[in-house]
């Protein structure tokens, strides 16, 4: 991959855009002088050797690859002509055909990294339009492997579903952790001890699953098989509707992603 590659991130001053910028710089995919970031109000200080601008078209004109990292609601006012260049959208809900028409290019990628890109632990599903070349695909893989791991999926509906499952990133483990911590404090544990216990459980579980790379259901069943306190907890959560709640949440996220695409 050419070291002279020029990448521009519209919304590079934001959390996700900044995380992607940091990841591709760390991986050596782009030199700082060939990285462009746009921002709306506060000039980011993290990338002093890169091109920073509030002019999104100026960023597009000096880039070979344009990453769209803005809120979907803000995209509707984004008037940028890519002129046939590769455009990678990391926005939820906005579909390939809408991106292609708005930005004047058939080389469009729809991807969905999550906030864990900041620590190179994002999972990113993505799909390309028909005009995307194999060289384009290789570049997309390199970008999102720098952010963690990635998969090319076969259908846009897969991206809509994964918007909830993986696009939410640390939100769901954090939701579980918050519920566990509230219960621990309600049972008399000091908040500091409860926080440390819960955060260590969640991060330790993530590392164990990553290292062993087993089916999560097999891990759960192994604990159930011991018939001890963990099995009692799992059975209690299931009886209270844990599985149904998760399915309902993922269904709500899927419907929201589809409706956002319909609105575009």
UniProtKB/TrEMBL annotation:
What does the entry list under GO cellular component? Answer: cytoplasm
Task: Specify the Pyrroline-5-carboxylate reductase dimerisation domain's residue ranges.
Answer: 156-259
Mention one GO biological process in which this protein takes part, according to its record.
L-proline biosynthetic process
Q: Tell whether Disulfide bond is among the UniProt keywords.
A: no
Which residues participate in NADP(+) binding? Answer: 10-16
Q: Could you tell me which residue ranges the Pyrroline-5-carboxylate reductase catalytic N-terminal domain spans?
A: 6-93
* Localization per Swiss-Prot or TrEMBL: Cytoplasm
Which pathway does it take part in? Answer: Amino-acid biosynthesis; L-proline biosynthesis; L-proline from L-glutamate 5-semialdehyde: step 1/1
Question: GO terms for molecular function, please?
Answer: pyrroline-5-carboxylate reductase activity
Q: What reaction gets catalysed by this protein?
A: L-proline + NADP(+) = (S)-1-pyrroline-5-carboxylate + NADPH + 2 H(+); L-proline + NAD(+) = (S)-1-pyrroline-5-carboxylate + NADH + 2 H(+)
Q: Which UniProt keywords apply?
A: Amino-acid biosynthesis, Cytoplasm, NADP, Oxidoreductase, Proline biosynthesis
Against Pfam families, the record matches this protein to: F420_oxidored, P5CR_dimer
Physiological role? Catalyzes the reduction of 1-pyrroline-5-carboxylate (PCA) to L-proline.
Name recorded for this polypeptide: Pyrroline-5-carboxylate reductase
Which species does the entry assign this protein to? Rhizobium laguerreae
């Amino acid at each position: 991959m050419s070291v002279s590659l020029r990448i521009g991130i519209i919304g590079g001053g934001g959390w996700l855009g900044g995380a992607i910028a940091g990841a591709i710089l760390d991986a050596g995919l782009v030199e700082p002088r060939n990285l462009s970031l746009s921002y709306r109000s506060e000039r980011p200080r993290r990338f002093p050797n890169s091109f920073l601008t509030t002019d999104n078209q100026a960023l597009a004109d000096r880039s070979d690859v344009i990453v769209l990292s803005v809120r979907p609601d803000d995209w509707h006012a984004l008037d940028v002509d890519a002129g046939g260049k590769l455009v990678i959208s990391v926005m939820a809900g906005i579909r390939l055909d809408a991106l292609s028409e708005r930005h004047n290019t058939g080389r469009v990628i729809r991807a969905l990294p999550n906030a864990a890109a900041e620590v190179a632990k994002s999972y990113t599903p993505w799909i390309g339009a028909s005009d995307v070349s194999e060289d384009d695909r290789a570049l997309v893989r390199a970008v999102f492997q720098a952010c963690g791991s990635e998969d090319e999926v076969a259908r846009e509906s897969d991206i809509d579903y994964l918007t909830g499952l993986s696009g939410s990133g640390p939100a769901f483990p954090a939701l579980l952790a918050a519920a566990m911590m509230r219960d621990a404090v309600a049972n008399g544990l000091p908040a500091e001890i409860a926080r440390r216990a819960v955060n260590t459980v969640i991060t330790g579980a993530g590392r164990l699953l990553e290292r062993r790379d087993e089916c999560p259901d097999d891990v759960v069943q192994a604990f159930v098989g011991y018939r001890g306190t963990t099995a009692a907890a799992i059975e209690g959560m299931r009886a209270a509707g844990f599985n149904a709640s998760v399915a309902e949440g993922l269904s709500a996220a899927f419907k929201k992603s589809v409706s956002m695409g319909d609105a575009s």
